[in-house]
Amino acid sequence: MNGLFITFEGGEGAGKTTVLKSIMETLQKQGKKVMATREPGGSAIAEKIRHIILDPEHNEMDARTEALLYAAARRQHLVETVLPKLEEGYIVLCDRFIDSSIVYQGVARGIGVEEVRQMNLFATDGLMPHLTCYVDIEPTIGLKRIEGHKGREYNRLDQEEIDFHFMVRRAYQKLASEEPTRIKTIDGGESLESVVQHTYHVIEQFLNKGDC
Ligand code: TYD
């Protein structure tokens, strides 16, 4: 595989989606082969699974069903969208990946980190991102930010209580401390411009070193 797989992670309202878009434009301007995609979704079948998972009416969805659906969407997206681009040598920027499942399903839903990790490694056939940019935000600030975003899709995860989002943050911070080489933390509390700059710096260093 010749390409690079870079994922973006963070709680609600961290700004990772905006940051990803800006990084993509910068890398494109430099003439690099780059594509942006997202989870859950990123391929026709995976987008359909996304619709089932995030439908606000699906309140009866069981936590393990949810975890399996995320993993199924991940597998399909990987095979249809991500792997072919990596084979072609692209830098693939992906909004959320396996760490989202470990944090949201494994910790916040209480299924267990190792259970969710193993199920996902089956789905990805062991593939992990080369680099993960974790945009860290204090949940009350993040949620306040997205409150004002008209046109943003309202989804089932938006119905969660604030404690859920604090659990998500703590779990991301723990993961980042356990895997400091792969997961780089960016302070999402700064201005959007600074968050973009900091993230770009992390990616630039990674591309220059060519390690991880
Ligand atoms: P989305 O609207 O894409 O949110 P965001 O802009 O915050 O990425 O909704 C995705 C939601 O799905 C988000 O709340 C996180 C959740 N999620 C999981 O719980 N597990 C996963 O594996 C993934 C990929 C997402």
Task: Spell out the blueprint of helices and strands.
Layout: E1 4-10, H1 16-29, E2 34-38, H2 44-54, H3 63-87, E3 91-95, H4 98-108, H5 113-124, E4 131-136, H6 139-147, H7 162-178, E5 183-187, H8 192-209
Parallel strand pairs: 1-3, 1-4, 2-3, 4-5
The structure holds thymidine-5'-diphosphate.
Strand order of the largest sheet: 2-3-1-4-5
pLDDT average, as an integer? Answer: 94
What's the CATH C level? Alpha Beta
Question: Regarding quaternary structure, how should these chains be classified?
Answer: single chain
Query: What would the principal axes of the Cα set say about the shape?
Result: globular
Radius of gyration: 16 Å
Task: Sum up the structure in keywords.
five-stranded parallel beta sheet; globular; 212 residues; 5 strands; single chain; Rossmann fold; binds thymidine-5'-diphosphate; alpha/beta
How does this model look, in words?
It contains eight helices and five strands; from the N terminus they run E-H-E-H-H-E-H-H-E-H-H-E-H. 37% of the residues are buried. Helix 3 (63-87) runs antiparallel to helix 4 (98-108). The chain is an alpha/beta fold. The protein has a five-stranded parallel beta sheet with strand order 2-3-1-4-5, with helices on both faces. The protein is globular and about 45 Å long. It has a single domain (4-209), classed as 3-Layer(aba) Sandwich (Rossmann fold). Residues 12, 17, 39-40, 70, 95-96, 100-101, 104-105, 153, 155, 157 line the site of thymidine-5'-diphosphate.
